[in-house]
Design goal:
It is a single chain. With 184 residues, the chain is α+β, with helices and mostly antiparallel strands. The chain has a single domain, classed as NADH Oxidase (3-Layer(aba) Sandwich), CATH 3.40.109.10. Helix content is 38%, strand content 16%. It has five helices and four strands. It has a four-stranded antiparallel sheet. The longest helix has 22 residues. The chain starts with a helix and ends in a 22-residue tail after the last strand. The mean pLDDT is 96.
Length: 184
Amino acid sequence: MIFELIKKRRSVFPVQYNERPIAKEAIEKLLEAASWAPNHKKTEPWRFKVLTGESKARLGTFLANKYQEVESKPKQIKIKKLTENPKRAGAIIAICMQRDPNESLPEWEEIAATAMAVQNMWLAATELGIGSYWSSPGLIKYMDEFFDLNEGEKCLGFFYLGYSDDELNEGTRQPITEKVVWLD
């Protein structure tokens, strides 16, 4: 069963979402799945900020304004996308990582653990029939201006959630034999 779920997981983008709301209980299930990700030294570095309701529109406005502030030649289509995509989502989970204050392990391990937490959420969302997509815009480096982040905490992206009426394509991958070397 898990192998089929892994193969079924897809990126479902905000433009594909319908108006169906996502129940808080469903989001809580995703967050619970995230909490079971493997992590070295039990640092549990993942942190999440859940945006629903008007906070999604505020995020879109912030992103569009910040883009216009930092981009020398802002494109109207990008401004529109930054403004509209958050509003299309049923919910957005900001993916953050809290660095171990003791730096008892390399930062990449905490980033990897956070990514595994997101994969757990993605698989759980797939099982629940919720479309999802991890976006890491260049503007992510400015999220400390939008969120109240703790010292050592950084935002790694946004996990967009929404129901979709679209038929999802079958995934394809190159054969694993092209990517593996066996050593005896």
